Amino acid sequence: MPTDKNRATAAALLPLVGGPDNIDSVAHCMTRLRIGLRDRSLVDDAALRAVPGVLGVVEDDTYQIVLGPGAVARVTPEFEALVEAGRTPPAAVTAGDLAERGAALKEARKARNATPFKLFLRRIANVFVPLIPALIGCGVIAGLNGLLANLGWAPALVPALAAIASGFMSLIAVFVGFNTAKEFGGTPVLGGAVAAVIVFPGVAKIDAFGEHLSPGQGGVLGALAAALLAVRVERWCRRRVPGTLDVLVTPTLTVLVTGLVTLYGLMFLAGEAAAAIGSFANWLLAAGGALAGLVLGGLFLPLVMLGLHQALIPIHTTLIEQSGYTVLLPILAMAGAGQVGAALAVYRRLPRNGSVRSTIKSALPAGFLGVGEPLIYGVSLPLGRPFVTACVGGAAGGAFVGLCNQLGVVFGSKAIGPSGWALFPLLDGTSGMGVTVAVYAGGLAVGYLAGFTATYFFGFTKQMLADLDTDAGPAAPPGPAGPAAAKEPVPA
After folding, report:
1. What's the predicted TM-score (pTM) here?
2. Is residue 404 among the annotated active site residues?
3. How many Å from the N-terminal Cα to the C-terminal Cα in the chain?
């Protein structure tokens, strides 16, 4: 039974992370089980990597076990149930060194690896990441609907699919407002309420800055700004309104003040910002597509390592809201293609290193589907030079896609999250599905070939080959560039 398999995976993971009493929190994203630990020293990294189904581990503000899309959503509930069932009853737990050392390690790690800017970007990402499953689902349905409409099939079904695909996007501002307030310490429903003002049809009757507003003007950027303001207003009210009146006065003032500021300021300003983002992205690829693609595709992995890729999430969402797809994601996805090509070259260059080759064989299927962490943290980043040559492959693939965009084949992804081959069902553009798919596939092929070629000829020094191409060659040489030093997740 699938449930038994997921429970078995969860049961295998639990003792290797220190058992139930070593766990503070459990969550998951698209590909990773994220665990808050009390004592990092109780984790057995090597044993975790050997568990069937585990694609890799990453240490960030939480300990992250890469299980892959789909699997993580099924294993996490089983893991949570085992944690709850196995906890020591509160009366039997003492405030010992375990919790103190775990808290100290966590705080030291945060202080060493986090900056205010990166922490802010991470919180912004936390607003949008929960929306990704709906974006993917609605994006795939929109693609299916477009295919049926173009072929003239099932005409009675087309309006229904259009409603299903578009309903979420028409209200995405509300979800952004809800998540923003939740993330930044406000009341989530108040954040959703002020963001709902943006999509209310009646705003068309309101004049701001000499122009009538349009429903949806400002989009997710306006919703984000409105909810952040709502959090500030709510906190101000909580500190000053008497407790007996708080339940009535605080939500009323929060919605009223923030709503007025949104209508007579934020919607207009956010709308201008969103229009500027869309215009700049289109101009960038139309005027300098090949160069822009080369830079974006080549620098995406280093941006991820620095944590700066999270700033792109609201931009992607804004572009999807404006035109139905983000033109940037197919270019950035070429970084994963370069990584796959580099891994294939490493496989060929180290014919006697069974450990490295085994890691690559097990991680390649996920790499083709856009899950790049196992190859990055298990192969290219620890080796050093292959990580750089993988970026070369990403630059080449990005340049190809950017050049085609510059030549008039404009396309993008209807959702964020997937990459690699998994992006095919989400592609959309102005030149028809056949041309769009062909260009994206061509970009992947260029990325694979360039990553392979650059790594095969320039990814190793003679000394590296002498040290690594042996039966006992290490899969991940120790050092500051090893997997334990990688602090940022890398969606590739």
Report:
1. 0.75
2. no
3. 31
